[in-house]
Design brief:
Elements: E1 2-4, H1 7-19, E2 24-29, H2 35-47, E3 50-55, H3 65-70, H4 75-85, E4 89-91, H5 95-98, H6 117-120, H7 124-139, E5 143-147, H8 151-164, E6 169-173, H9 193-210, H10 218-230, E7 235-243, E8 261-268, E9 271-278
Helix pairs in contact: 7-8, 9-10
């Protein structure tokens, strides 16, 4: 396994791999890796002859400077996990390497970025598009792997790939959960032990709400989830919506789509957690 810090060196190595007709997969991450990330790496290794994992905490996707500063960074642990998993290349650039000049590109993804994460984190998806497109240009992967916990992000990246005509297949991989049901996240390490225990209620509440479909109306399910979590003093629900998984627009009746998805963002103390659940009519 090689750790590479420059785009130029990465391109040189990957060019040699391509000369041998090797397929290349990419797992973009911001580090602080957990088993959820490793499941993406394992899928990448299964599908491709060369696995590249990027580790870069991207400043342009954080609309809160404190959130950027406090985002966990554990490079030595990350490297050890990736070596054990069988990763071939780690791309760990500096901020100066990724942004030698300010990235002034502004993307227009239409209505899919006006809701949920886009509504509460202005500029977030523009920053995601900036960094992911840069990674795609640097690696030129055949396939790229993302976790479904970031459901809206995957939708945005799919649109970006079409807009920029980047020849990469986007692979969405299932959410991995802790034994309590809590969706694995790098941010979980910032929870206190008491908060960590309470945070499992997010997934449990979503799972319970799925048993109400289609008997209860959409707005009743939404109200149930928000009220159940906000009744716990440790939580503050930022948003919960049930949407069409293709358009990401709110639905008002279960008959509007065959595969609605409920997406949530919750503050557990000062830590912002996201999750989602698919509802079956």
């Amino acid at each position: 396994m090689r750790v590479i810090n420059s785009v130029k060196e990465l391109k040189r190595h990957l060019s040699e791999e391509r000369k041998k007709d090797k397929s290349i997969g990419l797992v973009p991450t911001m580090g602080a890796l957990h088993e959820g990330h490793i499941s993406l790496v394992e899928q990448c290794i299964a599908d491709n002859e060369i696995c590249v994992v990027s580790i870069f905490v991207n400043p342009t996707q954080f609309n809160d400077k404190n959130d950027f500063a406090s985002y966990p960074r554990t490079p030595e642990k990350d490297y050890a996990m990736l070596e054990e998993a069988g990763c071939d290349y780690i791309f760990a650039p500096s901020e100066e390497e990724m942004y030698p000049e300010p990235d002034m590109r502004v993307f227009d993804f239409g209505s899919i970025t006006d809701v949920m994460e886009g509504a509460y984190r202005p500029g977030h998806f523009n920053g995601v598009a900036q960094v992911v497109s840069k990674l795609f240009y640097a690696v030129e992967p055949c396939k790229a792997y993302f976790g479904e916990k970031d459901f809206q992000q995957i939708a945005v990246i799919r649109v970006m790939v079409k807009q920029l005509d980047i020849p990469v297949e986007i692979i969405a991989c299932p959410i991995l959960r802790e034994s309590t049901g809590l969706a694995m996240s790098s941010r979980n390490t910032r929870l206190t032990p008491e908060q960590h225990q309470k945070a499992s209620l997010i997934a449990h509440t979503l799972k319970e709400s799925a048993t109400f479909v289609p008997g209860k109306k959409v707005h009743e399910v939404i109200d149930y989830v928000i009220n159940a979590l906000n009744n716990e003093p440790v939580f503050r629900v930022e948003y919960f919506d049930i949407v069409n998984r293709d358009t990401l627009q709110s639905i008002h009746n279960w008959t509007e789509t065959t595969d609605p998805i409920g997406c949530i963002a919750v503050y557990c103390g000062e830590v912002r957690l996201i999750d989602n659940i698919t509802y079956k009519n």
